[in-house]
Amino acid sequence: MPYANQPTVKITELTGENVKFQIEDTDLSVANSLRRVFIAETPTMAIDWVQFESNSTVLSDEFIAHRIGMIPLTSDQVIESMRYSRECDCEDFCTNCSVEFKLEVKCHDDRTINVTSADLISADSRVVPVTSQGKDDDQPYDGDSTEDILIIKLRKGQDLKLNAYAKKGFGKEHAKWNPTAGVAFEYDPDNALRHTLFPKPEEWPPNTRSEYTEIIDEDKHEAEFTVEGKANRFYFNVESSGALKPENIVIMGMAALKKKLSDLQTHLATELHADGHIN
Amino acid sequence: MNAPPTFESFVLFDGEKKVTMELDTKVPNAALFTINKDDHTLGNMIRMQLLKDPHVLFAGYKQAHPLEHKIILRVQTTADYSPQDAVKNSITDLISELSLLEERFREAVREKMDD
Q: N or C: where does chain A have the smaller number of CB atoms within 10 Å of the terminal CB?
């Protein structure tokens, strides 16, 4: 590996919801590609096929189907062994490429019934809506909002009956497959590279990551301009929607990026071989 | 109404090749690689890695139009080196860098969990 970087990683915080880490000694392009991959190319499971048996609610079929698709499903345990439906050799769906869901709620009494993600019954207990996870234990998943996701409210006489299949996909195809709730990305907190130009640097509040804590009191509000400087340390904060554990988002994201590169290398090799290495 | 399906941004058409190479006739040791169904995620990384190689005289990429899912990568090398080898080596370097990063991240997670 003649000209490869040797990056280092430091994790500053790791909770069930997000992971904060820094990468050093790598390129801006690599850090940015990682950011793009966490958002758009890390696969998860999400409902992508819905069949309605009955819908007398106030929302249309496609409206409800869209809402159900946006519900994040816990994908940690199955996603690596799951195949993409378009690549699976089964006809329609099978357990290797999909997970079946059913939802059936009818309102009989005079009160308003809230149809929530808890009413979505999965055929595979490993893939459930994130809010339904671990509902048997007393300990909530993240201690924060374990409230079920509201799909629709029913009045007396209204009912909803559907079955759906969740498939593997990634954010590039539709945002429902995005495992992150947000990826915070920062570099060069003191603006030594002048990648951004503050019209009045003194008006900007001091950066918590600034290495300039001593100088902040004087006139300097940003670092000296280093002409030949290159971005070297990148700060990430990957927040998960619950579909994947935050450390899994990072690990599976890096694996997805590696796979893209190695697939490209294979295709390149076959293409050049076919040409007979014409120079 | 006329929107093409979103999976077209990463699924190759039937018979479409992932990479095609065209030699540049105007200068020696230069080639134009057209990579289908890819975007800046790979393009920028490969370009940066190519620029690190001292035998590479020119490396640049572009996505000619955001609605057309392909990138064009132009590489020119010194006389003793071919653009194909330059791209191959750059991809190898990137894969090894990511492998190292993955390993270090896993280690860091294990350490963090042990705390």
A: C
Q: Report the C-alpha gap between B91 and B108 in whole angstroms.
A: 25
Q: At what angle do helices B83-114 and A28-40 cross, to 10 degrees?
A: 70
Crossing angle of helices A28-40 and A246-275, in 10° steps, is: 110
How far apart, in Å, are the Cα atoms of A74 and each of A43, A78, A98, A243, B95?
A: 12, 9, 13, 4, 29
Chain A contact present for B8, CB below 8 A: no
- pLDDT tens digits, A112-169: 999 999 999 999 999 999 999 876 555 545 545 578 999 999 999 999 999 999 999 9
Q: Is B34 on the interface with A (CB under 8 A)?
A: no
First-to-final CA distance of chain A: 24
Task: Name the average pLDDT for chain A.
Answer: 90
Q: Collapsing DSSP states into helix, strand and coil, what is residue B75?
A: strand
Using CA atoms, how far residue B82 sits from A47, A48, B30, B46, B88, in Å, is 47, 46, 8, 16, 10
Q: Indicate the DSSP class of residue A83.
A: P
Q: Residue A1 and residue B52: Cα distance in Å, rounded? A: 12
Strand partners, A236: A21, A185
Strands (DSSP E) found in chain A? 8-14, 18-24, 44-55, 98-106, 113-116, 121-122, 150-154, 159-169, 180-187, 233-240
- Cβ-Cβ contacts under 8 Å, A173 against chain B: 6-7, 9-10
Q: What is the ipTM of this complex?
A: 0.95
Residue A116 CA to residue B43 CA, distance in Å, equals: 42
Q: How far is CA A104 from CA A125, A131, A154, A163, B23, in A?
A: 18, 18, 12, 9, 61
Residue-level length of chain B: 115
**Can you give the pLDDT at residue A80?**
94
Model's pTM, two decimal places? Answer: 0.91
- For residue A226, give the 3-state DSSP assignment: coil
